[in-house]
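Standup notes
- DV: blocked on the single-chain target, sequence here:
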Amino acid sequence: MIKSQQKKKQASEQDFKAVLWASADKLRNQMDAAEYKHLVLGLIFLKYISDTFAEHQEKVLKQVSDPSSDFYLGDDPSDHQSALEERDYYLQENVFWVPTDARWESIRGKAKQPDIGQIIDAALVAIENENQTLRGKLDRRFGRAQMEPGRMGELVDLISTIGFGGQERSAKDVLGEVYEYFLGQFATAEGKKGGQFYTPAHVVKTLVAVLAPDKGRVYDPCCGSGGMFVQSERFIEAHGGRRDDISIYGQESNPTTWRLAAMNLAIRGLSGDLGREPADSFGRDQHPDQKFDYILANPPFNISDWGGEKYESDPRWVYGRPPVGNANYAWLQHMLWKLRPGGEAGVVLANGSMSSNTSGEGKIREEMVRKDVVEIMIALPGQLFLNTTIPVCLWFLTNDKSQRGRDRRGETLFIDARQMGTLVSRKDRVLTDEDISKIGSTVSTWRNQNKGYEDVSGFCYNAKFEEIEKNSFVLTPGRYVGAVYEEDDGEPFEDKMKRLTSLLNEQQEEGAKLDQQISENLKRIGYYV
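- DV (later): unblocked, structure below
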């Protein structure tokens, strides 16, 4: 009975978010998703801090009007109302101070005015001026948004429907989930471009499950919208820790995405240092004197314009200078450089990083193995990302394998998770909680005790240095774990062949359409084929 109720509750929450998204998307009209994203998420943020402020106002009113309270101010209602506007009551509880004209009910009351965009921008300016940690972090683009008359007001009314009265969970949890859901939906709507700032939550959960951050400094040098921090905080709370046990540090070069991260953290009630400004991690490290306990990152894959020619003698290149035309090994070495002694890093990279010998990458990888900084390699299934079909893998690095568990020096764990995941559509696959738990528990057993861990054919293998050397320092898990035993999946051969043939035909038709489109585009710019 309890499980049934939980399923119904989860379904209703999902329906609520889906309906809210569908309604918001209808208002988009001809506006590009990349632009519309910031309007919707900005309003969600504004609604959140205003609701949080209003919620705390009620607490203050109870305190100052209750004779048994230490904050009792007497029987005069005017004194009680005056107390509601005293900043100290809010700042001491880390609640953002929201000026009167910036509160949601004030904005909603003006939603039908033609200058509502300018009104919202003014509210954001007022909030930034009153809260030091938000200065420069709020995206003020409402006044110049190209929306049809009345559309902005409709959007304000729509966001107003996110209600919190009588719910078991806090406004922070509900609105945080809506925010995260919208981030994912916008990444889908934007396609490849949108995926640059969004790492699917199930991939982040896998990184967190392996690293198991419990306390200390957590860093993401290309933090996007801040998903790594959110999952780290959830992991700690799920395992009985406190969110204050970790300190958050991030950096992001894209100004609008940097602001998204700041809002995402604020919605969760998390404090973090994202640097003084958006900046490139290679050229303008915002945390130059800091070393970190945990690093989680999903850097852009195979990026060629990272400015590598400017860093010829950089001290970070301990294992070899990375090629100018590909930043993969620059990211890996930057993260190793930022680890404190015994710290650990988890990085998402394209599969090619495990075996490439281009421009000296093989030599760098060999040196990393020889210096024993590669702890775990995990190959993931395809179709996990919204923005790329490139197969990806997870690198886990540490500068001391004798810490956090048994002495693992000279060993590297390989996990082949390519058979994991569940298709939620023809194009999208997700790692289930069971998948993530299996990976996490395998790593934990291997890391902490020899007796409980066993190599599993086709899934995991504990390799010694000599074995990696025999494989020419290629780190592809499939080379080490062996072949998986294929069980009968129960699908009749004829049915399977029909299904696969149909899928092949669809893909061929899609390929032909793309070829035709490319040909037409080339003709349009003067190239004839």
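- Follow-up: DSSP finds 17 helices and eleven strands in the chain.
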